[in-house]
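Case study B.
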Amino acid sequence: MHTSQVAIGRPPRVPFGWHVVDGLISLRRSAVGRNVGKAAPLLLIVPALALVGVLASGIGFLTWASLHSYDTFLGLQGEFSFGEYSAIIHDRQFQTDLVRTISMASITAVIAVLLAIPFSLVMARSRRRWMRLALMVVIFVPYLTGDITRTFGWLAVLGPRGPLTWLCERIGVTPPDLIGTLWAIGLGTVQVLFPAAVVILLPAVLRLDPELEHAAGTLGARPSRTFLHVILPQLQIAAFGALAACWALAMGDFADPQILGQGLKDYLANFLQNRYLAIGNPPQGAATGVILIGLVTLGAGLILVLGRVRVRRRPL
Amino acid sequence: MSDTAGILVGEDEASVGLLPDPGRMNTEAKTMVELRAVSKTFGDVAALDDVSLSVRDGEFFTLLGPSGSGKTTVLRIVAGLIEPDGGEVLIAGASMRGVPTFERELAVVFQSLALFPHMSVAENIAFSLRMRRRSRVDIAAAVREVLELVQLPDIGNRAITELSGGQRQRVALARSLVYKPRLLLLDEPLSALDRRLREDMQLELTRLHRELGVTIINVTHDQHEALFVSDRVALMDAGKIVQVGHGREIYDRPATEFVAAFLGDPVLLVGEVTSVDERRVFRTGSLRLQVDAGAPDGPATLLLRPERLRLLPDGATSLFDNTLPGEVVFAAFDGTGIFVQVELESFTVSVHTTMRDTLEVAIGDRVQVAWNAGEAAVIPKEPA
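Model:
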């Protein structure tokens, strides 16, 4: 009989997957009776740690690649070297893009946070449900729209046959040629950053005690001075948090300079892409990426530290 | 409402004691705050219904009432934090219509105290002076002075989070007093304190009021606090002022059953006042009780307060106008005397004996409950 022959002969090959299942069953049996409760929280964060680990390994790979010379003709990695860093730091295009990225990220992040503070206050304090809903829509619809879709939306608005041109022609003003300028990039970036700033600020705004503003009023403070002396200081940490997040987001912006800037006003992310794909020098792209990550980390950290510094007056 | 603007205590009562200091209760004093037919509605709820009252300059005036009676709404309307739907508010004779809070020259101590968490104690106190653009030298001197006034001279550089509950109360008071406002509004600032601290702060408030002479409107639901600190009390219920007067007067002669029941822990008997042999008699069921000669004829409520009743041994000869036999059903020492509940023939009454009373009672003892006609207030039934 066929079956008896199998039983007598060599044991059948068990697929590898079954070995894994057996291993998991053994692991579960060995864990029964042990105190796994304490380990449960650690187990729950394993997926998140795995994600961070993948990112860290990617950064590690970038760093490793950036620290070696590279032959762009043969496409071969050479010896350990800082040559790629030296090359891009002395590159005029890199210098221009670096200054532009830092300047534009700083300006757009500050504008986004300045716009988000009054917006969050109005949103949090609006008593009318429809008003709150409308403001939520204003925030979240652009937020949930993809980067590229939103940016192309701006291209349509600011472009030669867009509503801006139409409006200018109607009121007899020469339409500004914004596409390809920093103005267009700035507008697009602020719109990306603004919802993020509101989302970060909103919990702090909701925590504000309205009684403190009433108290300020009864002590003789006009609304403007109440805003400056009572509301803003309480939002300081959240506002700087929003600023750090917006700055980091703006530093890594790619779509706005690419689409609205038409490649004429590149950021570091565009420079990086050029090194990888156009020039074919991945180690220089990696070095750019490492510099960008370092700058974002340092800058955001510095902003967060500044947010926690209390403005000290001389003692009375 | 028995009186909107100030029932003053009659001359015959002035000899009783515990009445306002004549200096503090100056009947000639000008009016600091006046409310004229003020009303306010939140949604469908009438928070204030045609409220009128006046507070004299330098007076310590308390708005007393249960939660939702409208007392905080009155305070907030005076402060300008809420706009009334109707009526008018005057401060020092000037209409406050259209005058924003920051121009009303008053101070509020809120229930939450509302101390600025991002400022030190000294910065909190200096806030009102900074808003008035005083010089740094003036501010420093004023802060030092007011911290000494509230007996916290060395805490100026501390953070608000480093203060105890009592210290926070004092800092909130100091912040309100530092610029010498003409009017101080207190929105139940003592309600969160434990009893000992609350009583200390009540004494502190009366001391500051005496020393500074500032007009104070205090809001509280604590009847003890209202009676203890105030020159006059206004009792509020359901958006209306039910009675205004000196605490002793409201306590002894409540205008309504609500006032009687809100203050103290009385027994209220419903019946009718009639004349019998030239005496005024209150009839309820089969009971006939002698009442004050001034009690008007007709349906009324008799008010028996525990501290006005006496306990006599069973069978003892009584010289009181009213004496009812009964049985002790509960007796407990409460620190200031003995609280006794006596079951009478048709109702149960509470009696609070003082430490000076020598009669010792136990549950099940037969006793007599006695009082004189003038010691039980008669509240005529309000016309429907």
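The mean pLDDT of chain B is 87. The remaining cases will be described in the next quarterly update.
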